[in-house]
Amino acid sequence: MSQVISLYNSLSRNKEVFEPINAPFVGMYLCGPTVYGDPHLGHARSATTFDIVYRYLTHCGYKVRYVRNITDVGHLENDGDDGDDKIAKRARLEKLEPMEVVQLYTNAYHEMMDKLNIVRPSIEPRASAHIIEQIEMIEKIVAAGLAYVSNGSVYFDVLKYNESENYGELSGRILEDLIAHAGEGRRTLEGKEEKKNSFDFALWKKASPEHIMRWNSPWSLGFPGWHIECSAMSNKYLGEQFDIHGGGMDLLFPHHECEIAQSKAANHCNPAKYWMHNNMITINGKKMGKSLGNAINLSQFFSGDHALLSQAYHPITVRFFFLQAHYRSTLDFSNEALQAAEKGLKKMINGLRTAKSLNYIADVTIGIDADLEAAIQQECQEVYDGLNADFNTAMSIAALYNLLKRINSLKAKHLAYSSISKTTFEKLLQTFIQINEEVLGISEAKMLEGASPIAMLDAWMESYQTARANKDFALVDTIRANFKANQIIIKDSKEGSEWAYEE
């Protein structure tokens, strides 16, 4: 925990030094998927962003309780209080029970996240398993006079709340503008609207006769609103106030704004000290959408089975592509960008192989170069500086490439081992390997999943070396061609032969 980490807090709109409420313990909540369809790039970017946060905080010595929920009820089609429940609608279309839909797509989500090398959270609660906690929280809000019952549904009274609080403190929305917009909409909803104001949001919805998922409550047979779920679950597992609440930029309003309002109404405090939001993804400069024909799910990226993809992309290539941009910047996917990421990733993996093969060689005839020693120490710190600067993985990767140049120079004997101390040599390798594997989640083992294992590749290399020694050039060419077909090359030198990933 010697590293000083700063992060951008969406609540204050400033970078702040990260100071946990109860160090070394850290509570982190991430809004997980609504499981009604195949996992897509938006799911992957959010999960990867907060996977880095979790991994780096853990690397720095913090004890992190990481909670990422599964939304399996209450999320309506328009993200508001109207329309069908997304899961119930899919259940009708696929002629399945709602919980079959939930399990099907939860399994798919886990499978895709595992391929991306996303660490599973400490706790993964489901909204449908926490109805009691949600009802209890709603009762507290009603008792505080900040919610009202209308025809069996319960709505949060935004105007009443705003008399003492600021609805819009996170998103920057101005209530007067919402009121003006509500005035325009009220005419079209006259006689149909249960709410006092259109911007009031549902805490509990009375179920219509055809609604599949429903529970008993003090107000009606119904189901919870989308926003109350995260408030109740984060409160249960992390307490009334915890350190980090994360999610995509699309959740900032209304979802996270409503979470703050609910928690302040029930618990008299903002639920999170720091609010973090990753930005959105475009494809070839356009927003993703089924109507645009550019909606690509993760399994299609990994198989290449989509008209917009020129090839299949390994999950770790997709992960590495995410990490080459800051999480708060918009990220545009294209085949050219992914192919560039693939090349850079292979360069990094080759570097990991090289780093693990090096052993310090002392030579008393060569003295330590103090300037070189200081430069390498500084380059190691720059890897951490990137992560400390609001988890800027792009900065850290650039710094790791600088370390890779040093590692390759040692391998090629352009740089003598004894020109630096053994301590600096070990720090160089440790920083390069640990940050790649433990923090960025970049490892050769994950790259080779489903491919030829390293032991088999090494065995082929032995056959290659034997064939080369016996001047069996036909076999040499055959083995080289087999390696090339798997995007692996063979490097021959005076010291012998070795294989590497084709960059």
CATH class of the largest domain: Alpha Beta
Q: Based on helices, strands and strand pairing, what is the structural class?
A: alpha/beta
What's the architecture of the largest domain in CATH terms?
3-Layer(aba) Sandwich
| Count of separate structural domains | 3
- Percent of sequence in beta strands: 5-15%
Describe this structure in words.
The structure is a single chain. By secondary structure, this protein is of the alpha/beta class. It folds into three domains: 6-278, Rossmann fold; 308-447, Orthogonal Bundle (Isoleucyl-tRNA Synthetase, Domain 1), CATH 1.10.730; 454-501, no CATH class. 47% of the residues lie in helices and 14% in strands. The protein is built from 17 helices and 15 strands. The protein is elongated, with a radius of gyration of 27 Å.
Report a brief summary of the structure.
The protein folds into three domains: 6-278, Rossmann fold; 308-447, Isoleucyl-tRNA Synthetase, Domain 1 (Orthogonal Bundle), CATH 1.10.730; 454-501, no CATH class. By secondary structure, the chain is of the alpha/beta class. Helix content is 47%, strand content 14%.
What order do the helices and strands come in, and which of them pair?
Layout: E1 6-9, E2 14-17, E3 25-30, H1 41-59, E4 63-68, H2 86-94, H3 98-115, H4 131-143, E5 147-150, E6 153-156, H5 158-161, H6 175-189, E7 201-206, E8 222-224, H7 226-238, E9 242-248, H8 252-267, E10 272-278, E11 281-283, E12 286-287, H9 298-303, H10 315-323, E13 331-333, H11 335-357, H12 370-388, H13 393-411, H14 422-439, H15 444-447, H16 454-469, H17 473-485, E14 488-493, E15 496-501
Parallel strand pairs: 3-4, 3-9, 9-10, 11-13
Antiparallel strand pairs: 1-2, 5-6, 6-7, 7-8, 11-12, 14-15
